[in-house]
Amino acid sequence: MNPLNHVAIIMDGNGRWGLKYKNSRNEGHKAGLNTVEKIIKETIRQKIKYLTLYAFSTENWNRPKNEINFLFDLLENFLSKKIEELNKQNIKLNIVGVKKFSTKLNKLLNHSEKKTSKNTRLQINLALNYGSKFEILDAFKKLSKNGDKINEKNLTRYLQTKNIPDPELLIRTGDKKRLSNFLLWQLAYAEIFFEKKLWPDFDEKDYIKIIKKYKKIKRNFGNI
Ligand code: FPP
């Protein structure tokens, strides 16, 4: 059975779900948040140590203002209401990406990270304003500025995911088979599962099924 320490998820399909059932993309994001809570609970049950969620990419800034504002309001509400509970559950919150939001949200994110920084049960990495190409280029720039030797180990020290082991499993919901500029370096050897269901329809049972399948895969890492 393969060990499973880190699951990364591209939570795709909120917009389509919202349009299909509620005639509003934003309602899809609201429903998507319920799935986030279900998946966090199951991740704890499975004793998985790291969960990385792609919540907002650098490319998502191209969306209509109303949708962007809705997403950040949703995040603000969620954190204000739930950070205490996450902390009690011994969950650590870590933001991956460049924190360039409103002063209020930046403060809330910093406060949430600080409050939960010593927690050890599960680390949730929330990818916000995250883009993998930017991350890798930025790491190279820092590496060369500091005159460090260019090698894999040194480069990873400058990635936004430093100190986080690479995900062994990537799940993308929403029936699209692409990586969308997500953890391109870190996913080099991940097992990838593309799920047809839209994110708001995805649940614990689907998650458990994927985990079971992943655990049985013969992972070769280039060997035979
Ligand atoms: C992709 O679906 C989803 C997002 C860009 C946002 C993800 C946000 C959530 C799951 C809810 C908020 C989460 C937190 C942690 C507060 P899409 O809108 O691209 O879907 P589409 O492909 O159907 O348009």
Briefly say what this structure is.
The chain has 224 residues and is an alpha/beta fold. 44% of the residues lie in helices and 16% in strands.
Task: Tell me about this structure.
Helix content is 44%, strand content 16%. The chain contains 7 helices and 6 strands. Strand 3, helix 4 and strand 4 form a beta-alpha-beta unit. Helix 1 packs across helix 2, helix 2 packs parallel to helix 3 and helix 3 runs parallel beside helix 4. The longest helix has 24 residues. It is globular and about 50 Å long. The two termini are 17 Å apart. The site of farnesyl diphosphate has 21 residues, from helix 1, helix 2, strand 2 and helix 3. The site of farnesyl diphosphate (FPP) has 21 residues, from helix 1, helix 2, strand 2 and helix 3.
